[in-house]
Design a protein that fits this description.
Blueprint (H helix, E strand, L loop, with lengths): L1 H20 L4 E12 L4 E10 L6 E12 L2 E8 L3 E3 L4 E10 L2 H8 L3 H5 E12 L6 E11 H4 L5
Antiparallel strand pairs: 1-2, 2-6, 3-4, 3-5, 3-7, 4-6, 7-8
């Protein structure tokens, strides 16, 4: 009985160790493309790069992303697309977003010239994975992009 208890505790400790050692992935914009544009809602295709700083592969089976531009909520998207990010590697993927760009556009219209050339962004949310006890990994990335590079004008 003691041997079984020790084995169970060892297994739980090993699983807990995997969960605490997992570093959050780094996400960054690759491009943003308009699919549909209506007055109150826009559908966008977002291409993201996921960098895995961990020494084990990251099997992703879902993503929940909020996008802010110029300090304003811009878009939200969820994806159930499955892919694997190799250990200490990266992968790119596309996902759909639903946006209400009114707030971000108003903010950009009232911004000075420098702010219109470089736009601040924030990507935050959670990545769902199938790794041990740690099923979701939160992320929160910020940065700036030249506005012209953010939008992919080609269809």
């Amino acid at each position: 009985m003691r041997v079984i208890a020790v084995l169970v505790l060892s297994l739980l400790a090993a699983c807990a160790g995997v969960g605490t050692q997992l570093e959050p992935p780094k996400l960054s914009f690759v491009k943003l493309r308009t699919i549909e544009a209506g007055l109150f809602e826009q559908r966008l295709e977002l291409r993201l790069r996921v960098q895995n700083p961990n020494s084990l592969s990251l099997p992703v089976h879902g993503l929940d992303v909020d996008v802010e531009l110029a300090g304003e909520h811009f878009a939200h998207g969820v994806s159930a697309r499955e892919f694997t990010v190799p250990a200490n590697g990266e992968a790119e993927f596309d996902m759909l977003l639903t946006a209400n760009a009114a707030n971000a556009l108003i903010r950009l219209a009232t911004a000075d010239r420098r702010e219109r050339e470089q736009i601040e962004y924030r990507l935050h949310g959670k990545l769902s994975t199938r790794l041990g006890v740690k099923r979701t990994v939160p992320f929160d990335e910020t940065g700036t992009l030249p506005l012209g590079e953010l939008l992919d004008r080609r269809r």
